[in-house]
């Protein structure tokens, strides 16, 4: 009986000690994206969460804040620098203010296919661009797709640049995109996403985005009657991390995060490419008038002067891209 008593006493003490010890805190990982749940940004962020939960169960609480709940892409990037937000899936346009060389990817008619973009982004050029994020307090983790950008508007079918003359076209908050649309002859209006209300109210005549965004954003229901398949700029997305946060991670956990971003990014590319044809068909069926073969030669001629402003590393990167994709 004494043995049983001592055993029970020991168990009671051990149990009491266990309750006295604080539970291991679960670290919260905030991912800020500006798009809604059906957009590739959010789909990829959710895939990242699944991968981290699977590899490190119970260690991190990954929360995806969609629909600009944490602010515009520029504001989220600023929060990444401060370390108050840990991750984002962000369009390259706003990144230009933080990593100027990224505008090499944003130049008009630089890429002709997804095969060409993969060759660049998954090769030495893409790796070099991702490394350049460090100097701005960011971590470039992996590239994924937004798709090729096309122009929509509420006024008329667009066959060539002259059809856009004077139109108020929403662009991203990017000097390169503003230069492109000024060269075309439109009236570019930089504005953070979402822009549905501005389109509905006629504050904007049109906008430019990939098919995936036009579809997920239901822009045809916001008065955008006309779509022209200009494919004028390839729009990459980047899985971006906060350097302040990533530098504190144990090496093994950092590898898990980088691998999860890579897996999520490849899934994001497939999501965009596999759905593009059906999304375009659905837009047509919903009544959107589509110009499938606009005068691309005229658009190229109008936007070629944008290349004349390039200098330094950005100019060298563009030259390397052209050699790689020729």
TrEMBL record:
| Signal sequence, renumbered to the chain | 1-25
Cross-referenced InterPro entries, in alphabetical order? DctP_fam, TRAP_DctP, TRAP_DctP_sf
Keywords of the record, alphabetical order, are: Signal
Per the UniProt record, one Pfam family is DctP
> Does this UniProt record's set of keywords contain Signal?
yes
Q: Which domain of life is it from?
A: Bacteria
This chain's protein is named Solute-binding protein
Annotated source species: Rhodoferax lithotrophicus
């Amino acid at each position: 009986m004494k043995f049983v008593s001592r055993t029970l006493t020991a168990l009671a003490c051990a149990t009491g000690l266990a309750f006295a010890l604080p539970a291991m805190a679960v670290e919260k990982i905030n991912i800020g994206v500006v798009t809604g749940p059906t957009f590739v940004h959010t789909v990829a962020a959710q895939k990242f969460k699944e991968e981290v939960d699977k590899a490190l169960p119970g260690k991190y609480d990954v929360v995806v804040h969609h629909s600009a709940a944490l602010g515009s892409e520029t504001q989220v990037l600023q929060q990444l620098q401060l370390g108050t937000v840990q991750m984002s899936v962000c369009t390259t346009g706003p990144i230009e203010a933080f990593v100027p060389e990224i505008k090499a990817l944003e130049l008009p008619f630089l890429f002709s296919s997804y095969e060409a973009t993969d060759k660049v982004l998954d090769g030495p050029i893409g790796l070099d661009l991702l490394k350049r994020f460090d100097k701005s307090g960011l971590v470039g983790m992996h590239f994924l797709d937004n798709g090729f950008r096309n122009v929509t508007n509420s006024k008329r079918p667009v066959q060539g640049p002259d059809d856009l003359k004077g139109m108020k076209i929403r662009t991203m908050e990017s000097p390169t995109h503003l230069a492109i649309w000024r060269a075309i002859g439109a009236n570019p209006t930089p504005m953070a996403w979402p822009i549905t209300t501005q389109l509905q109210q006629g504050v904007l005549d049109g906008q430019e985005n990939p098919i995936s965004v036009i579809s997920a954003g239901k822009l045809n229901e916001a008065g955008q009657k006309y779509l022209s398949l200009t494919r004028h700029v390839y729009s990459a997305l980047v899985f971006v991390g906060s350097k302040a946060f990533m530098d504190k991670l144990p090496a093994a956990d950092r590898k898990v995060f980088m691998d999860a971003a890579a897996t999520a990014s490849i899934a994001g590319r497939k999501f965009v490419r596999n759905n593009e044809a059906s999304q375009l068909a659905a837009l047509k069926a919903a009544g959107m008038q589509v110009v499938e073969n606009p005068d691309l030669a005229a658009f190229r001629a109008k936007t070629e002067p944008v290349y004349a402003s390039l200098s330094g590393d950005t100019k060298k990167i563009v030259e390397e891209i052209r050699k790689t994709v020729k």
